[in-house]
Write a structure and sequence with these properties.
single chain, 373 residues, alpha+beta, Aminopeptidase, 15-stranded mixed beta sheet, elongated, BioF2-like_GNAT_dom, Cellulose biosynthesis protein CelD, Acyl_CoA_acyltransferase
């Protein structure tokens, strides 16, 4: 299904074509890739057409607005359409980089784009830095933690030793002890065994429940999306399953997406039976080394504070949460539905003791739910 909105026909200047992702032509997809390749932003795989195409196969609400300028596609805006014209970022809930892919200096406003899509609002929680079309609607800014291995893994390791010598010594010592006590440690950067992916998803689901969080893999569309992306092989977006083994046993794993230069870290988990060896930290160091060997310059660990991110990071890049709206009832409904809870979450995050109490409460609730089964 596709529709034409705006000031002209599909090939007219300033017009917009709205389509399901799977209805985009091969030529349009190639222009999308070319526009993204010319961008000054890091080549995050979530911004490539392959991710949107995969979401389109599992979410009927997925759409792409193709904006024309001078008779040629000048921008691609992927989104999911909700009730009453309220939109969300494509793959909302699991997408770690969001926004529009467009020519520089495209003559377009957020209000015009939303109108052409029939949207009253568009909500985002990981808006890419530099998305000037939408940043005015941001309600909060967060840090996405990154590991820069552009100068090679040896340079990263040297910097890590200097910045956190105790952390590095402890982690490498635990890796050696894991090898002595559980079997030879080996690492596979791009594991193709479907059983390893299934094991990772089991670990991650258990972790979500253990920490009182919503189990993402209990949602069929997310589980199906991950399996689809595990088989995606494109220069700008490929699924990568990395696994750390001790002997024949997998002890930690990670599934993410990679482009030529960025590894977007997505779903890491480990076997709790091996927790004393910190296999997740060992896994990430091995991933950093393998990524550098592959020519990848950056690992994006995503937003959200965590001890392992603080220990491994070399820097941070900003991402934004909020919504672009245009005047009307839909925008008011969005504000009523979202802003109070967002402000409450912000209030908690800005107070470490309260945030710690909230985290303990989540874990306690999870234990009670488990005991009641």
């Amino acid at each position: 299904m596709s529709s034409l909105r705006g000031s002209g026909a599909a090939e007219g200047a300033g017009s917009t074509r709205v389509a399901r992702p799977g209805d985009l032509s091969a030529a349009e997809l190639e222009i999308w890739r070319e526009l993204r390749a010319k961008s000054q932003a890091p080549q995050n795989p979530f911004m490539e057409p392959e991710f949107t195409l995969a979401v389109g196969r599992v979410r009927s609400s997925a759409r792409v607005a193709v904006v024309y300028e001078g008779g040629e596609p000048a921008a691609f805006f992927p989104y999911m359409r909700g009730r009453l014209g309220q939109g969300r970022a494509i793959g909302s809930g699991v997408s770690d980089c969001q926004g529009i892919v467009a020519r520089p200096q495209l003559a377009l406003s957020a209000s015009e784009l939303l109108r052409s899509c029939g949207l009253s609002s568009w909500e985002f929680d990981n808006l890419e830095d530099g998305q000037s079309l939408f940043v005015a609607g941001a309600a909060a800014e967060y840090a996405s933690f990154v590991i820069d291995v552009g100068a090679g893994y040896a340079a990263y390791e040297t910097a890590l030793r200097e910045r956190s010598p105790k952390f590095f010594r402890t982690t490498t010592a635990k890796e050696r002890r894991l090898g002595r006590q559980a079997g030879e440690v080996r690492f596979v950067f791009d594991e193709r065994d479907p059983a390893a992916l299934a094991r990772l998803m089991e670990w991650k689901s258990a972790q979500y429940r253990r920490t009182g969080r919503r189990d993402r893999f209990a949602q069929e569309w997310i589980s199906t999306l991950v399996h689809q992306l595990a088989h995606t092989r494109a220069p700008g977006c490929s699924g990568v399953l990395s696994v750390l083994y001790a002997g024949d046993a997998p002890v930690a794993a990670h599934f993410g997406l990679r482009s030529r230069t960025v590894l977007a870290c997505w779903f890491p988990a480990y076997d709790p039976e091996y927790a004393k060896y910190s296999p997740g930290l060992v896994l990430h160091l091995r991933m950093a080394q393998a990524a550098a060997d592959e020519g990848i310059g950056m690992l994006d660990l995503g937003r959200g504070a965590a001890e392992y991110k603080e220990a491994l990071k070399t820097g941070e890049i900003p991402v934004y949460e909020g919504a672009a709206t245009r005047p009307g009832t839909g925008a008011l409904l969005h504000w009523i539905g979202r802003e109070p809870s967002r402000r409450a979450h912000g209030f908690v995050r800005e107070r470490p003791r309260l945030a710690e109490f909230a985290q303990r409460s989540l874990k306690r609730a999870a234990r009670l739910r488990g005991a009641g089964r």
